[in-house]
Amino acid sequence: MKAIVNFLRSLLAKPIGWLVSVKSIPNDLTKELGIDPSKPIVYLLQTKSFTDSIALEKSTTFLNLPSPKTMLKLEGEQYERSYYLNRPQSIITRQIKPTTIEDNFTQMFHFQREHQDVDVQLVPVFISWGRSAGKERSGFAQLIAIKASPNWLRKAMIVLFFGRDNFVTYSKPVSTKEMAALKGSDQQIAHKLIRVARTHFQRKQQTLSGPTLLERASLYNSILGASSVKQAIEDEAKHKKVHPTKARAKAQRYAKEIAADYREGLIRIGDRVLSRVWNKIYDGIDVGHADRVRELAANGHEIIYVPCHRSHMDYLLLTYVIYHEGLVTPHIAAGINLNFWPAGPIFRRCGAFFLRRSFAGNKLYSSVFREYLELLFNKGYSVKYFPEGGRSRTGRLLPPKTGMLAMTIQAFTKGVKRPVSIVPVYIGYEHVMEVKSYMKELKGKSKKKESPTQVFSAIRKLKNYGHGYVNFGEPLSLNNFLDQEVPDWREHVTDDDKKPKWLTPTVNSLANNIMTRINNNAALNGTALLAFILLSSKTHIMSKDELIKAVKDYLALFEANPYSSDATFPSNSAQDIVDRTLALNRFEQTQDAYGQMVSPKKDNAILLTFYRNNIMHMFAVPSLVMALIFAHGKLNKTSILASIEQLYPMLKREFFMSFTSETLLAYVSNLLDYLVNSGMLIQEGDQYSSAPPSSNEFHSAWLLSRSMQETWQRYAVVLRVLETEQTIGRAQLERQSTAVAERLSILFGMHSPEFYDKNVLATFVNALKENHLITSNEDGSLSVSTQSLDLKDTIMPLVWPEIAQHLERI
Length: 810
Prior knowledge:
By secondary structure, the chain is of the alpha/beta class. The protein folds into four domains: 18-209, no CATH class; 261-520, Glycerol-3-phosphate (1)-acyltransferase, CATH 3.40.1130; 526-706, no CATH class; 709-808, Orthogonal Bundle (Arc Repressor Mutant, subunit A), CATH 1.10.10. The chain contains 33 helices and 26 strands.
């Protein structure tokens, strides 16, 4: 009988294998899980299943792990490679039959005690077919929904429908040597391990598929039945003088307008479509630090993703990455402007919920939205929203909009029962499809309203966009954050929607913390590096050899002095980076008698500022060091540190930088040592000077000194206007500074629209106020101060002489 079963299995293995496409999570088992391929490995699975064994065989072959079909040889004895908690469910009785696993583990630990030098790695492997979370009501979808140990007939249907959506998820190995050292008999230890394994597999299922989905009627009833919404309906009826039934109907329309209608089937279809799209337009998607999010999910955290926002692609790319990292896809906050046919209904079924740009003056809408958000948190749905509120047109992070963060904190304080963690996410690209429209908008052209025509036009233009980058930042525990910021916050919690006094400053602090963590996860890439280097050149043109040399020098700089431990940069050579980036056809290449030259394509230098700004914060301090030394010829370390301490608060505010006073001084000290050792600086006694023009490193040092020039010019403009006027209203200061900056851009060729962008100038004015470098008067006007004049004296030597002279004549 056993021979017949084995024959049938071997006969069916190949055709079933054709149906199965395996995604292994994570890809790097050694780095993330600590699995050592040189040590003995056995696998622990939830159910003994023929199709699961085929999926595991495919996965282990891809990952170069021992095949589950092979026997494990230890001390002359042979042992099974795979062990199972359950047998499949019976078709007739639906009972789940036990296995002999407790006896197997008892023998294993007995063997371990007799052979202390052996250490077997017991690796839990969770195999999932599809990602269906299940619904409150049954139906055909529930017939093929994943069960813990389905019978062979149900499993056949599952494989038929979900064979292309198979996920093999590995967990950290359990050391049999460490387990055998625990107190208790071998049988007791085995029993404990099995109990923990069952809980572990249940959590894995929750991590992959998420909580049960609410039916629409239940969702609306939950929202409209909340006390805060009931009160808002009463107030609406009273103030608008309408019948309560009409006010309630209005609240329900708001709920329908807002709420997502998540369909797991559409997510699977979207995965198929996006896989083809990404393969067409990207030559790779690099994902960093995803293990952080998996750990949070495994520990039962409510996860809120807060990414930067640079393209409409962000909605799709991040969700796609989360899906392929073995995590449940989040509900996504999207602007109401995206709720147009046919995109709106598709986005809604992919988990998007829509919000209006402003809630001001509409208490009923605010209450409905807040209650919906609280419902998502309490039910355990992960959520994603963009703290900037809209896409950045300049490539730099925008000042955060705090509305969603405020509602998150309010929902949390009202009694979200699970731990809540906010995960900052950096998303970067080597090409953004909207970049040309961004530049037009910065020059004053009105933003086009999203429409089906725009969508189809964008799809038609899709082409090679190079690499995409998604880096998951250091998670921020909301509970711990509130305990640090407002130790007595629990004493101020109320059931109504009234905001506590501590909410606004706490939300502002949280927002700044999140944006800083996003920038800590920046990804250096070829397009951004080449844009940074070419725009730092006076003529925006360089020989290819000089370009490669600069890329090599800057990569070495960040490898020796990383901006943060989470920032990522390419591992391939400078030559490969330049060649691959030029192959994207975003730069002009010409040839003369002396070699190849590289420059922006005609009229494209302005577009490159977007990509340069993605990584400008990483270069800010090294550039300032170089600018100070080039401006003064020679400087001692004390003078360098004093100038950096004076200017850094402005940079920190503008670029969301993370250095504290202590870490900044340590970073600069290490940086100076490296620049001397690399040859970009010369040290004589306590004096630092630039490398001589004849040295190979001079050009990289000179480019670095020029890279922040527009920033120093903007600062100089504001401070000079303030000095000239002495006392001026804030709005007038920003308008006048914008006018002067726009004039300079015409006179001296700074064609980047962000140079005179009012929002960027306003950020600098905010930094001056927050650091008490200007005087705020009772009437709201601003006055020059001794500190602001000192700051101007520090900045002016950094500005090109012709511009400094022009500013002095204002």
